[in-house]
Amino acid sequence: MRVIEAFWVDIQAAFDAIMSINSFDTFVSAMAGLIWSPLLIILCLSAGLYFSFRMKFFQIRKIKKMVELLFGGSSSDQGVSSFQAFALAVAGRVGTGNIVGVATAIAYGGPGALFWMWCIAFFGAGSAFVESTLAQLYKEEIDGEYRGGPAYYFNKMGYKPVGIVFMFATLLACGVLLPGVQSNSIGVSMNNAFGINPAIPVVVVIILLAIIIIGGTKSLSKAAEIIVPFMSGAYILIALIILIVNIDKVPGTFGLIFSSAFGANEVLGGSLGMAILWGVKRGVFSNEAGQGTGAHAAAAAEVSHPAKQGLVQSFSVYFDTLFVCTATGLMIIITGMFSTYIPYSGVDGVFQTYAEYSTMGGDSALINSFTPSAIDTLVNGWGTKFVAIALFFFAFTTLMAYYYYAETNLELLLEKQSDGTRKAASWVLKILFLLMTGFFGLRANAVAWNAADVGVGLMAWINIIGILVIAKPALLTFKDFERRQKAGTDDEFFTVEALPAEDQPYFKGVTFWHEKA
């Protein structure tokens, strides 16, 4: 009842804010607060927990297989390799959320927010498996490339209205609302590190994006394949060095994380509710588990069994959160370079909600300094420069992935239109995407984040509820993969006809995975 009452209060607050709106920024902030209610947090955690139980916590049992599959397989004329699909998905996941997003979660939720990021990564791997396996099952070949994702599997499974809603939500999110937070962070970090006018790096990003997105899926995946391992490896290495230098503080750091995760240290740790809210919120923003975006990259892979890419994409959730986000979080906490904002209800004029606080400008300059300050403890004066460079690569590859997700949904939306109409629409999307990258990139930092939260939340609401309803084929596919593993035939090409007769009716709508005549 308390959750429902809190949700109703959020709705009323958002409605009041919208009715009294006097600026675009206020509207975006109000929508972000409405969409990210406690109900969405509960939904994200519950879905992941449910799928984990259904597959007997495959996250632990299949970890070795995940790594093996990551480097297996090869590309084809129609699809990319498992590793390229992994790199493209990680490119979408590893972005500004891994640096600024983690810092924000710790600022508002305390060190315990990192624990809840781990939780949503662990349980969210179940959601990631289901959505990615469904994307593989219901993928299509369009213009010589594999395409797929939530809109595709909703449509083919008889939930076309849901698919259409998701298509428009993804076009709005990935084509309009999400790009700006990446370019904005690049501009802010370059300004802090080198004193460059934020507009200059934002324009540079737009030019580079324009060059790459014209090349198509192959161009995007090849660029991600090169950039992602390099940028992630360097970043994690710096974090490891900082941990080694501060090895004596490691036990106390983990003690603080676990104690504040459950509200045991509210002065330094933040409240329990805020730790969960910000840990899950920024965790989903970063690792995209259940959001549906990673499923688009999964569909592009050339694999012999749909479950294989589901396992690879589950590992990408681990990689994003348990490696990269953890690297940021531990650097910030172990060096003590963080401050915690504890919201009280109207006491001494302190902000009541983050949405309210962000409209006042927030303290983005302080939060953005968390990670650079942590690195400065290792090499004084180089923190802001290293973070600016790392953030450029992180955010730029995420922008590439966002465009791919938007384009994939546009292709499905216009699949029955003429080639001329589709090409014209593709160019409109390219131009709109680049314009929005600049529009939100040059607005206040809090506005860009709120816009991104709206986009992520919209997709998560639709996709998570959807896959809870239609998960059966993915769960049966996982069961088939385990059966093949025991028999030693897991490398044989998956077909619907090879499934037990009682399972085959659940695969209605699958067009790709059939015995070739």
Whole-number radius of gyration?
22 Å
Class derived from helix and strand content: mainly alpha
Tertiary shape: globular
- Across the major sheet, the strand order is 1-2
Look at the structure and give the mean pLDDT: 81
Strand content: under 5%
Provide a short characterization of the protein structure.
Mean pLDDT is 81; it is low at 74-79 and 342-362. The termini are far apart.
Question: Secondary-structure blueprint of this entry?
Answer:
Layout: H1 2-19, H2 24-35, H3 38-54, H4 58-61, H5 63-70, H6 82-93, H7 100-109, H8 112-137, E1 140-142, E2 145-147, H9 150-156, H10 160-177, H11 179-194, H12 199-213, H13 216-245, H14 250-261, H15 266-269, H16 272-287, H17 293-299, H18 306-334, H19 354-359, H20 364-368, H21 370-376, H22 383-413, H23 419-441, H24 445-470, H25 472-487
Helix pairs in contact: 1-2, 2-24, 3-8, 3-16, 3-24, 5-18, 6-13, 6-17, 6-18, 6-22, 7-16, 8-14, 8-16, 8-17, 8-18, 8-25, 9-10, 10-22, 10-23, 10-24, 11-12, 11-22, 11-23, 11-24, 12-22, 12-23, 13-18, 13-22, 17-18, 18-21, 21-22, 22-23
